[in-house]
Amino acid sequence: MANEVCLRTLHLDRPWLLSSYESEGGYEALRKILTEKISQETIIETVKTSGLRGRGGAGFPTGLKWSFINRSAPGEKYIVCNSDEGEPGTFKDRDILRYNPHALIEGMIIAGYAIGGTAGYNYIRGEFWEPYERFEAALQEARDAGLLGENILGSGFSFDIHAHLGGGAYVCGEETALLESIEGKKGQPRFKPPFPAMFGLYGRPTIINNTESLASIPDIIRRGGEWFRDLGVENSGGSKLFSISGNINNPGVFEIPMGTPFSELLEMAGGMKDGYKLKAVIPGGSSAPVIPGEQMMELTMDYDSIASAGSMLGSGAVIVIDDRQCMVKLLDRISYFYYEESCGQCTPCREGTGWMHRVIHRIENGQGRPEDMDLLDDVTQRIMGRTICALGDAAAMPVAAFIKHYREEFQYHIDHKKCMVGGR
Amino acid sequence: MSLRCEPWARTDKREDKENLFSPEIRAEIDKWVAKYPAEWKQSAVMAALRIVQDDNGGYLTQELMDKVADYLDMPPIAVYEVATFYSMYELEKVGKHKICVCTNVSCMICGSENIVEHLEKRLGIKLGETTEDGKFTLKEVECLGACGGAPMFQIGKQYYENLTPELVDSILDSLEQDNGE
Ligand SMILES: Cc1cc2nc3c(=O)[nH]c(=O)nc-3n(C[C@H](O)[C@H](O)[C@H](O)COP(=O)(O)O)c2cc1C
Ligand code: SF4
Ligand code: FES
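A: This is the predicted complex of the input protein with flavin mononucleotide.
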């Protein structure tokens, strides 16, 4: 049972077309809502029942988020879709945009209807030119068919959607930085509260959801909240897109039920490449704490199981690492990323990411000092929970986890000025 | 609530906007301006910078940024802030083809180092440099959201995935050939 929701047009020839989407039940949910005049409360309740949790990384219940908006407040209210897809390891939203853009469009319209929204913006990362063009073409198809824009299907409900292209900045995936970026500023996260539901885009009430979260909405409405929930397991409703990459034979995006054993996902992805052994897995994008391979083989792909191992499901980006890889070198690269991408507003993040990277880099290069391990422990603790946005935590968590599970590799680098793996 | 969210103010608005860019460029920028509320023209700044950068052979100059500021009624400093914050804007001359190689984790463990090494050798430059003939710039970038095709790079608007040294050669060969026009 795969590709049941967001990727359900994938088996078709040119799956991105409106005709393909409609042949798979596309826009049925929107038609039903508009003709039967289904109430906003009913839609939000259905989304709550579905157990859908934010697919952008934080896993916040989508229905609950929608209920925070004051629907009767006058003036503009916005739906913003987060297609910034910047968390290393993640490449699923790109496939939704390329292969099933109408699911996202229908989801955004329904979300707009449910919160009394007036317009939607989809923030697509600037490098995604092909997905952006697909999305624009799909918007045009939907407008031409009367499904988007003024007076949708003659219902009196109007809602338009626009694409916004990013410019290459990971931090813009953070929801308030993303809003700043749409407003034509540099993408620096805002202090919260106020939350976007109160004070969002252009200072107006705004709901921000990930591409996959929104693309899941039409089927939740069409087939029912229970149907979606029962695809998954307790606390993790539905199916989910997993982007699996690394040292495997058949990397790619797999839409599978929540709760699927990791071992099955690994098998779908063709197993380990060239017969090397599974060493470790980063289960939810590069900020998710690493999990040793043996332990990972016992886990299932859902929020609770991954959390029980001290990590997080995040964006569902599974990076599979084989036993040729040096964990110090990996962490060197990961810590460089967060150092590069810190927006610099908060001292613990700006300075801490630099410290972590410099220390890990010198360990990797055989210049580690005996006190470095303690220093790293100390720096991570000084960052976590002390910053405006979660990028600080995202930078510190992998460092803490790599050291926890692979301390001996770091120690070996410090003591012997060389690598344990492969004699480098 | 004392919170405010307002666009940048510019008192000395330029009236002769038609003199700033060609009609084609203006039409393209205006398409973006139309997406946002009327008072939020500045929301189109990222698009405008990209459009003029593409038109200028891949990089921005202060003159171009000032024109974008004039066109969108923004203070120039606000435009510089945007242009310097986002990695896709180039503030120095780049080669005709900018090769953006991902070296983040998934690409790294799938061999992006070999790809970088191969590119550096073939082009005779290091990451961050441009070939003397101005044809190629090599740029290291962060995860481009295509890790399933690691190792990968982007040239222009195009992604190239599952790279091998042989594939890299054939891509560069064909780029060198169409250099005539
Ligand atoms: C540094 C940082 C980067 C993020 N990048 C993304 C991203 O690329 N895509 C995304 O959907 N969410 C990203 N998020 C999470 C968003 O802030 C937000 O929680 C999410 O878009 C909400 O949508 P959801 O509830 O549907 O997941 C990021 C968060 C942080 C702190
Ligand atoms: S935590 Fe880092 S990225 Fe986030 S606002 Fe602070 S400095 Fe910027
Ligand atoms: S790590 Fe290279 S594309 Fe994601």
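Helices of chain B lie at 23-33, 45-55, 62-71, 76-85, 105-109, 112-123, 165-177. Residues 48 and 68 of chain B are 7 Å apart (CA to CA).
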